[in-house]
Design brief:
DHquinase_II, alpha/beta, about 35% helix, 5-stranded parallel sheet, binds 1,3,4-trihydroxy-5-OXO-cyclohexanecarboxylic acid, single chain, Rossmann fold, 5 strands
């Protein structure tokens, strides 16, 4: 079973960036823990700061993998193009956020992607990704 995690802009700086909001762990360390926890699942990871590259990755895996967990970062709130890519593919997509976006600035309260996703998980720190995976593998 293959699950793709996609992280969008600025999420390469986890562990460095705004630690009071996003925590002090880097994603690679968390990813190693996830892979240990789910040894029978092939968890692929992709990060890009570029909208088109995220769309290309969705196209690449979006017709064959078991599921996709995406944290599109700020593109969540702006990108019709990523929303269209999620609508175009057949693999279920779960939108995740590390922070509780609803506790933050109003511009973070709206997601362009959510209406094309299976569901949304926000506010559980890095554990948001695991919760997304749990749902995808429970199907
Ligand atoms: C985020 C929330 C977004 O509003 C923000 O732009 C991010 C990270 C989160 O994981 O909490 O880059 O997606």
């Amino acid at each position: 079973m293959k699950i793709q995690i996609i992280n969008g802009p600025n999420l390469n700086l986890l562990g460095v960036r705004e630690k009071s909001i996003y925590g002090s762990a880097d994603f690679e360390t968390y990813l190693a823990q996830l892979r240990n926890r789910y040894p029978n699942i092939n968890i692929e990871y992709y990060q890009s700061n570029t909208e088109g590259d995220i769309i290309n990755k969705l196209h690449e895996v979006g017709f064959s993998y078991h599921g996709i967990v995406i944290n599109a970062g700020a593109y969540t709130h702006t990108s019709i193009a990523i929303a269209d890519a999620i609508a175009a593919i057949t693999v279920p997509v779960i939108e995740v956020h590390i922070s509780n976006v609803y506790k933050r600035e109003e511009f973070r309260h709206h997601s362009m992607l959510a209406c094309n996703c299976k569901g949304v998980i926000a506010g559980f720190g890095m554990d948001s990704y695991r919760l997304g995976i749990e749902n995808l593998i429970s199907e």
